[in-house]
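SEQUENCE-TO-STRUCTURE ENTRY
===========================

Subject: a protein chain together with a token-level encoding of how that chain folds.

Sequence line: the amino acid chain in single-letter code, read from start to end.

Question of interest: how does this chain fold, as expressed in backbone structure tokens?
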Amino acid sequence: MRLVVCFLSLLTVFGPAECGNVLVWFTEGSHWINLKIVLEALIDRGHDVTVLVPGTSLYMKAKDSDRFTYQPFNVSMDEQEMRDFIEEFLYFSVYEMDELNLLQIQKKVLEFTSKLQDMSIAYCDGVLKSPELMDKLRNGKFEVVLTDPIYQCSDIVAEELNVPLVYTFRLSIANVAERLCGQLPAPPSYVPGVMSKLTDKMSFTERIINMLFYLSQDFFATIAWRKFDTYYSEYLGRPTTYCEMMGKADIWLIRTYWDFEFPRPFLPNFKYVGGLHCRPAKPLPEDMEEFAQSSGDDGIVVFTLGSLVDKMPKEISNKIASALAQIPQKVLWRYGGEKPDTLGENTRIYKWIPQNDLLGHPKTKAFITHGGTNGIYEAIYHAVPMVGIPLFGDQPDNLVHMKARGAALVIDNIKTMEPQDLVDKLNTVINDPSYKENAMRLSRIHHDRPVKPLDESVFWIEFVMRNKGAKHLRVESHNLTWYQYHCLDVFAFLITILTVVLYDMEEFVQSSADDGIVIFTLGSLVDRMPKKISNKIASALAQIPQKTTLKQQSQDLVDGLNAVINDPSYKENAMRLSKIHHDRPIKPLDESVFWIEFVMRNKGAKHLRVEAHNLTWLPVPLSGCVRFFHHYPDCSPLRLL
């Protein structure tokens, strides 16, 4: 059967698929939901997928699919402990955080971080400290480790198995992992830190805030990672850090795209694959379809605050229900709590809704969302304007992006929200055509790609399997110190040399006395001339009383023909480069034509143009400060406070 699947996979968009073995590190929640989509696609391509799953997991259950091979491992915690942690974190994020000052918030966050680290180390121990399991994995002939790195140690497993590592995830706060470990450039002058709630168009004050946000998150990440630095060093038996090991990943598949992200510098081993879970809408269940059709020309509104928030204080649910009762649209509300007293006849409550299918329904006029990435991408995919009610995490930041794009309005605080606030914002996004137009523009950008996001994800995973990694895409900055990264040693050397040369030249000029000097050059294009001519010129110059400075360059001609013919390494490297050249998701000529046609279809590509074009030179180098404090956290101003 597997041979049949492999044969059929030859007909797919990327041509031949060499069926291989994929090892997947444990993850949770929406991370698992997104990762599972990629795994299903890999299985469709004929690959065998083995998923490491702990005995205690809220979302990963072996019964979910018989297409995966589940490899269980033991952990020293129970399911209730995990549920209590999540509920405590959600309650703090939604209902307590606004009542605390910055130091109290940071203290609480560090407490949660410490608990999460203990959980992560328990998962690490369950795999790495099980000799039987590690032997089984070593004998599994895996060709790649795939992970969403919310839990650590997948990088250790990849190193122990000597196979490439691929990350697939959405973000880390302030992109600390992507920047400090993956070396992704992020000038704070125009790249807002993730979860800073800033855009790429920042005032001077906002740039200060962004800079301090980067510095503070780098500082706290450095502190938080020390526990893993110790764990990694002890397990591997050599000094290392979590960030160093994470930086060895061959490919970073980031679940975002330029329809959502502000333009920014990028790296060749980072790939934007946002919206890989999106798909065309399917028909609705019969009762939902009847309810939607009964809305007439007014249409429907889809409302959900995500799978993690099934209940809320009755005061808040009553406010929301009261607001929804005042709009002419029919409302489908996903909610698992007690029925509000103010629920209108136009509103139906469901414990579950087919969100993607509802957003793709022609009657849908607006989407009320908490700002989760999956929901936002489905709204972009189907061109639905949004009203955001962010609760925690990256949700406020996500909605800032949508508001800046003109596709959403935001209610900043659900606790202080009044019914009229929700009514006004819903009426605006539904009745002001600019919101629908902007949502349609984002949708066009989302769909207008040379390769679909799921196909691109599969391509790069298979790429590292075919090529035993992707080290040629990994920038050399991984191996540089902070002063080498910013060429400070080069500047110091050049300034020294320039000082010496100018001093020496000044002495030469002064030695000419009253006769002066002659400067002689035939331009930068004439670096060499026949010796007979140069001798004539030198003879002439020798007969004048002036001192002469002569610009001339020479270059030795080295015959390396025998070396490249007789040394097989040159041919091997040429073949390797040729293989890389041919192994692309889209041919270079086709890609050139695609992007030319893209700007024709979309009247340009301003959404890909970085804000640095509108800045003076002074703010841009600020990124050096961030990198300095990463290498020397003890020098951080935050450490000195």
Q: What stands out?
A: Residues 9 and 45 are 5 Å apart (CA to CA).
